[in-house]
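hiii, so i know i said id send this last week but things got crazy w the move. better late than never?? heres the sequnce for the chain we talked about at the cafe, plus the structure i predicted for it. fair warning i was half asleep when i ran it
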Amino acid sequence: MKYLGCIAGVFAASVAAAETPELVVYTYDSFVSDWGPGPAVEKAFEAECGCDLKFVGAGDGASLLARVKLEGARTEADIVLGLDTNLTAAAAATELFAPHGVSAEYNLPIAWEDANFVPFDWGYFAFVHKDGVDAPTNFKALGESELKIVIQDPRSSTPGLGLLMWVKVAYSDEAPAIWESLSDNIVTVTKGWSEAYGLFLEGEADMALSYTTSPAYHLIAEEDAGFAAAAFEEGHYMQIEVAGKLASSDQQDLADQFLAFMVGEGFQTIIPTTNWMYPAVTPAGGLPKGFETLVTPSKPLVVPAADAPAIRDEALAEWLTALSK
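okay and structure toks below
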């Protein structure tokens, strides 16, 4: 009888596991890290959905699209979280994503309309430095300086791609010359944001490509006011991060539930002090104390999503040529 009881218990557990739906979300590595939003988001959503939310780290943001394109309709992902507006047109062109039906009162610097992708946070790219650094106020001054910087590869990283677009939008035909002047400043080009920022914190560079919101992490989490973002006169390029559900998902209703949850209080209150970005929908309690100290760009820069692929291709060619000399 003891063995029969044991077998019955195992069977019941197996049935329960089989009845628990699983939602697989591909995202970037820092999102699923111990200090990122992933653990808190998982706990909060599972408390509502009665499901198993499974985050899968897939490198940095730009790597997500490459992986899903490679896997196609065979992908195990139900949702991809971590693309941005520089990639949404290319993502939509794959026809792998399905319309979402989510609506929200977004607090974004631009009007938002996209049938396939839902924004969850946003910010501005910037070079972050420690106190004591004579920070430049534009790209030309940075190129003329002796400062050492770490940046990310635009082929795998959304910040890297954002920097590419930033230089192109700000300088147009002068962009190749800007990259040539910056080539001596670049210590290395990393695959993703985490590697680059880690090198900066270890003292391998004077500045790292990151966000105007990054100093908030040091101020709030570490109580260290010794970090700042350099304000550039030509403006700062904007990033809006999004999520979309896959048309091949067998969990369409659950994916819709997650996307709706993503723009609600339970998710949006987690973002400022875990992903260290501005939430797409400002929580009822507002932003955490410390965010009011951040640099506010005088000139927000952004490329319409539909125009991004063509500009990216041109800018990438210029970047590769300049850095290969």
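btw Confidence is low (pLDDT under 50) at residues 10-17. thought thatd interest u
miss u guys!!
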